[in-house]
Amino acid sequence: MPKIIYHGIYADYIEQFVSFKRSLGYKYLDEEKIFAKFDRFTIESGESTIGISKELSDKWFARMGCESDSYRYSRCSCINQLASYLCNIKIRSHINKLPKYRCAFVPYVYSKKEMENIFMACDELVSKEKKMDSTIFSMPILIRLLYGTGLRINEALGLRNKDFDLTDNYIVVRDNKNGLERKVPLSDSLAMACRTYLEYRDQLPINTSDDSFFFVKLNGERCNRYTSSIRRWFRKVLTKSGIVFTGDSHNHCGPRIHDIRHTTACHALAQMVDEGMDLYCSLPIISTFLGHQSLKATDLYVRLTAEMYPGLLKNADILCLNVFPRLDYEAY
């Protein structure tokens, strides 16, 4: 993607701020595009004095066209962050009140029985079509890896052979949502399942070098989250598992593959609490395991787990449920 060049009076400050955020591990790609719009906005508004005024902020915060509430919120949040940064470097700037936005979407958390049914359904998948670009071959191990590690689907599909250490049982996630690298442990059973997958996969006439992708189609091409094949097979898995799908592939209805990540977090939290671990101790562990950059996102799983297992957390410190303000569930 070509580098975005800013031309307005805030160009240098925007570049400094974006670089600062990326130094903390944020990719800041969508935000960078929003700053490009703000840059053009300041030029069109004839801004000539550094320092975001209330008037400029109010104009930017006004709804633009038919934009969604979520995009407007993101757009306004970005400029508030820039204004805060400017204040920190002694440039007086106005920080506006963010528009109200509340996502009503709640992730689907599979029960342990449903996950067992999903694994069984994956193992029983049969293709009636002789297509070499089918992802059916990778589905059983892909779903098991997602549940056993809590990876995002794009993180899992981006794994290469060199990222797996099946001797010491861990994987290295090199390209994740926040642009950081982390090691994720594999259980003995999951590592064994990965070795079994490799035993059969490497019999295909494909490239098996260290830099090749771990999850492949029958023709050796990488599995891609942006193709419909994985979603289509997962829909069939849900049907075979007796789980009702309530939407289509273009909206947030589901259940979705990404909900396996939410399920992993909730099941892990429930297990740790059941084994007597304090919530204050379990949250940082799950946060690190999932690759979150703060405990705010992980705290949401406390709420989900409390809803799923109402009796489990009754003896836990209920103050943990309110350590952080309510935020929207992770969308991807």
Can you walk me through this structure?
- Helices cover 46% and strands 3% of the residues.
- It is built from twelve helices and three strands; from the N terminus they run H-H-H-H-H-H-H-E-E-E-H-H-H-H-H.
- It has a three-stranded antiparallel β-sheet, with no helix packed on it.
- A hairpin with an 8-residue loop joins strand 2 (170-173) and strand 3.
- It is globular.
Taken in chain order, the helices and strands follow as HHHHHHHEEEHHHHH
Put simply, the count of helices is 12
Instruction: Give the number of DSSP strands.
Output: 3
The major β-sheet equals: 3 strands, antiparallel
Structural class: mainly alpha
Distance between the termini: 21 Å
Quote the beta fraction: under 5%
Rounded mean pLDDT is 84
- Rg (C-alpha, Å): 23 Å
Spans of at least 5 consecutive residues with low confidence: 316-332
- Spatial ordering of strands, largest sheet: 1-2-3
Per the principal axes of the C-alpha atoms, what is the gross shape?
A: globular
Q: Bin the helical content.
A: 40-55%
TL;DR of this structure?
With 332 residues, this protein is mostly helical. Helices cover 46% and strands 3% of the residues.
